[in-house]
């Protein structure tokens, strides 16, 4: 039997410096490094001239990005994009995920610096799930996370096949944010009309994104908190895109019951969440996001499919099921009898 590998502090040292890649990526996005290199390989001097940033600063962060495989370097000392950065870090491309990095230093890290205190008290730095504090955060944030949900929203639209319905299809997009879920469903069929619900200060961002897709005449907008706003009734589809994790268990159950009442018989609820497994041992990303909810909400958490299925059943839904999607977790669907 072979001897066990020796235990080393290597992973601890990696995590001690683990904040550096995040800040390096943010700096590269803000200084348009990936945008500039999208037109072709460039030397350090050429990149500095195109971005206006210092050669010293760019040399340092671009070499880090080479080490992280977000950039590559040729034998002639030119920097180039990798397939990953070309697809997801060029701001002019539809898959751009760099927007979330822009929030790192100003909106996210300052709250995380209070984690020791938060763990002690169980209280967030600022509860962004409350309208007063949350409106400013989300009106800046929702458009930048549009690419995270759009592929999943397209998968949902394909699965629902709303284009095969000859009758009008009414969609309720709750905590609409950028409007990504309603937009994808409206794109899939001319019969779809969407009611988007969100805080009054967030809805302008929703309206702007909807207008960019040329869908304004297919949308109605209702402002208010999810637990007090009038949703209306008779909807065929309701979407809850990444909202339960910020609400906590009690408010989530109330929201699911209210959504049930808003749907017509035979209607479908579609839920996007970062799902943990039943015993909360993984996957790592949803576990990390649970810590993000600790820092940023008063009761938020991440949940398992089994937990959410139980809430749906309690609210009256049947046939809770998973739909594979390109997002971080499968979608959860259920039906109103």
Could you explain the architecture of this structure?
With 337 residues, this protein is α/β, with parallel strands linked by helices. The chain has 15 helices and nine strands. A seven-stranded mixed sheet has the order 5-4-3-6-7-9-8, with helices on both faces. The protein has a two-stranded antiparallel sheet with strand order 1-2. The radius of gyration is 22 Å and the shape is globular. The mean pLDDT is 94.
**Mean pLDDT rating:** 94
Number of strands: 9
Strand order of the largest sheet: 5-4-3-6-7-9-8
The level of helicity is: 40-55%
Our estimate of the beta-strand percent is: 15-25%
Largest sheet: 7 strands, mixed
Gap between N and C termini: 59 Å
Low-pLDDT ranges: none
The outline comes out as globular
Number of helices: 15
Derived from helix and strand composition plus strand pairing, the structural class reads: alpha/beta
Radius of gyration: 22 Å
Salient structural properties:
337 residues, alpha/beta, 7-stranded mixed beta sheet, two-stranded antiparallel ribbon, 9 strands, globular
Summarize the structure.
This protein is α/β, with parallel strands linked by helices.
Topology:
Elements: H1 10-16, H2 19-30, H3 33-37, H4 44-51, H5 55-67, E1 71-73, E2 79-81, H6 83-88, H7 104-112, H8 115-121, H9 131-141, H10 146-160, E3 169-174, H11 180-188, E4 192-198, H12 203-212, E5 219-223, E6 235-241, H13 244-262, E7 263-272, H14 284-296, H15 305-315, E8 318-323, E9 331-335
Parallel strand pairs: 3-4, 3-6, 4-5, 6-7
Antiparallel strand pairs: 1-2, 7-9, 8-9
Helix pairs in contact: 2-5, 10-11, 13-15
């Amino acid at each position: 039997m072979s001897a066990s590998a020796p235990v080393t502090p290597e992973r601890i040292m990696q995590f001690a410096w683990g904040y550096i890649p995040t800040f390096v990526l943010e700096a590269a996005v803000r200084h348009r490094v990936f945008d500039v290199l999208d037109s072709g390989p460039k030397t350090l001097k050429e990149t500095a001239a195109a971005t206006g940033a210092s050669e010293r600063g760019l040399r340092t962060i671009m070499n880090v990005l080479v080490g992280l495989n977000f950039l590559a370097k040729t034998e002639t000392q030119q920097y180039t994009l990798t397939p990953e950065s070309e697809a997801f870090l060029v701001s002019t491309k539809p898959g751009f995920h760099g927007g979330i990095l822009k929030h790192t230093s100003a909106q996210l890290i300052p709250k995380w610096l209070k984690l020791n205190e938060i763990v002690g008290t169980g209280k967030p730095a600022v509860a962004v799930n409350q309208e007063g504090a949350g409106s400013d955060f989300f009106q800046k944030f929702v458009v930048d996370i549009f690419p995270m949900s759009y592929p999943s929203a397209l998968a949902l639209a394909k699965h629902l096949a709303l284009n095969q319905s000859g009758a009008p299809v009414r969609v309720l997009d709750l905590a609409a944010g950028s409007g990504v879920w309603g937009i994808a469903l409206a794109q899939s069929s001319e019969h779809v009309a969407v009611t988007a619900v969100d805080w009054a200060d967030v809805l302008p961002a929703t309206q702007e994104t909807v207008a960019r897709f040329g869908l304004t005449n297919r949308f109605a907008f209702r402002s208010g908190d999810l637990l007090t706003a009038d949703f209306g009734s008779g909807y065929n589809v309701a979407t809850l895109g990444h909202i339960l994790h910020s609400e906590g268990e009690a408010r989530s159950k109330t929201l699911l019951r209210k959504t049930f009442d808003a749907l017509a018989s035979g209607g479908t609820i579609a839920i996007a969440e970062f799902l943990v497994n039943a015993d909360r041992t993984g996957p790592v990303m949803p576990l990390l996001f649970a810590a993000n909810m600790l820092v940023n909400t008063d009761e938020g958490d991440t949940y398992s499919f089994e937990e959410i299925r139980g809430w749906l059943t309690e609210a009256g839904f049947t046939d809770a099921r998973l739909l594979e999607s390109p997002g971080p977790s499968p979608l959860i669907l259920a039906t109103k009898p």
